[in-house]
Amino acid sequence: MIGRKFVAGRKGMVGLVAFAYAMAMGLSGCSLTTPTRAEVEPEPVKATLGADDLIEDGVLTVAMDMTDAPQAMTDQEGKPSGYYADIARLLAERMGLDLRVVSSADVTGSLSKGKADLYIGARSGEDDVVESGVLVQNASSIFAKSADGSREVLTVSATTLQGAVVAVQSDSAAQDAMDSAGIDTTLKTKSNVNECFEALADGEVDYVACDSTAGAYLARAYPGTVFVGTIAPMVSYDAIAASGTDLADQAMGILEDALSDGTLEAIFRLWYGDLPFSLDDLALDGVTFEQEAPESEEAPASEGESGEPAQSDSLNSLG
C-alpha cells in the first residue's frame, strides 16, 4: 500500500527500536546475564539531511491533527501519542534526527507555509499534495461481541442486522451510514463511542456502529469484541512529504522498509489490534456503496440529526 508518489510544495515508538541483547556466559555453570535497556546503546544513525532539507537543522518537524484520536492525540503528560506519533518517531529515529510534532489539520498550509517538513494523516487525494503511501484506512463499521469471548471474526450481513439493536454515537458519520444503509435496525444513540462499547459489553445492544479505527482501538479492552465489516465508503490516509527532495526519498524508503520488515504492522497492531490493515472489499454483504469517494471530492460531510455536519467518533477515555 506504499507507493512512490510525492508532493509539490515547500522543501523538502511507543518506539519500536530493536535492542541488541548481549548474553554473556558466567565463569561457572551456564548462568546468563542480560543488560537492561538503559545499558544497551542503540546503534547511532548518522543524519544525512541538513538545513537545506529541514525547517530546523537536526530536527524532523511533523504535523498531524492531534484531535484525531486514536491516530494522533496527547498522553496524560501532554506528549504526542497515537499511531501517527509512533510513525513519526520511527521516521525520525531512522533518519538520525530529533523529532518535533506540531498539531495542525491544514495539510497544504503546514507544508507550504514552513510549519512542518512532513504531514502524517492527510486524506488521499487532498488538493495540491500527493501521498507517500497509505498508512491507515477508516470507514463506518460494525463491531460485534462473540458468544465465547474469542477474537474470531463473526459473519454478519445486512440480513443479520435486521431487527438488531445497534449502539451509535449521536450525530456521527456512523449514524448517518446506518440511516443510509436502509436496514431495519433500532439505533440506540450514545454521547461517545466509549459508551457504545460499554453497552455492547453489558448486553444492552447487539452491535456497535462506529469508525473502524476508534472501534478497533477500544475493542482491545473488551474480550471477544471484533470488527466484522464496513457500512460506508472507505477513506485512506497517508504520510505527506515535499516533492523531489532527499527528505521525501528517505521518508519513502523508510516506510517501504517498515512495511516489508513488519515494523509498520507492529505499530498498527499496537493501536488497532485485529483490525485488517486494508479495508478494501470488507463491506458487509447486502450493504452497497461506492468503495471509496473520488479523489477530487472532500471527505463526506453529511448532516446529522442536529443539522450540523456529522462528526467522526469521539473517545472519552484513552489508554
From TrEMBL:
Keyword Signal (UniProt): yes
Pfam families: SBP_bac_3
Stretch list, region Disordered: 288-319
Superkingdom of the organism of origin: Bacteria
Domain annotation Solute-binding protein family 3/N-terminal: ranges: 59-275
Signal peptide segment: 1-24
Biased composition regions of type Low complexity, renumbered to the chain: 301-310
InterPro entries, alphabetized: Solute-binding_3/MltF_N (IPR001638)
PROSITE patterns documented for this protein: PROKAR_LIPOPROTEIN (PS51257)
Keywords from the named record: Signal
Signal in keyword set: yes
SUPFAM superfamilies named among the record's database cross-references: Periplasmic binding protein-like II
Descriptive protein name: Solute-binding protein family 3/N-terminal domain-containing protein
